[in-house]
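It is worth pausing here to work through a concrete case rather than discussing structure prediction in the abstract. The textbook approach is simple: state the sequence, then state the predicted structure, then interpret. We follow exactly that order.
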Amino acid sequence: MLKIDDLHITVQETEILKGLSLEVPAGEVHAIMGPNGSGKSTLSYAITGREDYEVTQGDITLDGDSLLEMDPNERAAKGLFLSFQHPLEIPGVATMSFIRTALNAQRKARGENEVTAADFLRAIREKAKIVGLSDEKLKRPFNVGFSGGEKKRMEMLQMAMLEPRFGILDETDSGLDIDALKMVGEVVNEMRGPDRGFLVITHYQRLLDYVKPDRVHVLADGRIVESGGPEIARELEEHGYDKYIQSAA
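Step two, the predicted structure:
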């Protein structure tokens, strides 16, 4: 599914990723953990095509197709989704209009029929209950007046509605309480399947109590320095990143 081969990324003339290789097969959830400044968010931005993140070497493919020549909207239409660490507010844009427009734009790009207003309304109300957002929240401008936790719930609602082939959660657990963490776990676990993959980027093991990863990778100084099972996350929670930072130096 997602394959990253010897990826080097430069941002403002500074190399951040330094030969990162990673493969997430279809049907699996992989977690990326690492200290501040290790390149975790840079990795998510590079996959989804953020401007000014220059690929100087390597490749990123999804289902065998290189993403590097695709614009961000083309990558989204191919099935990529990024849950932002700091979701934006969009004043003046109605939440349901925003999500329906995004959904139909992706469907159109894939040659699919647009979703009808009635079907969309039925689906978004159903999924809003799962993520804990009221009808009143859906009627507001997008993310305007939302708490940090509510914005993360809105990210999960978008992912549930768009049903991506591959979802990337970039520190979605930041600032979330236990109930919200459980909600994230419920959404991801509900969406898990043989044709979909996830990459969960986090500092802490606590999210992984609810989103059970198949593999955990440690990122330090722009490279994957360790890979293994969920036990790695528990080890990091207990002992920290020191030994990995030293080995990457």
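Step three, interpretation. Residues 95-109 form the longest helix (15 residues). DSSP finds nine helices and twelve strands in the chain.
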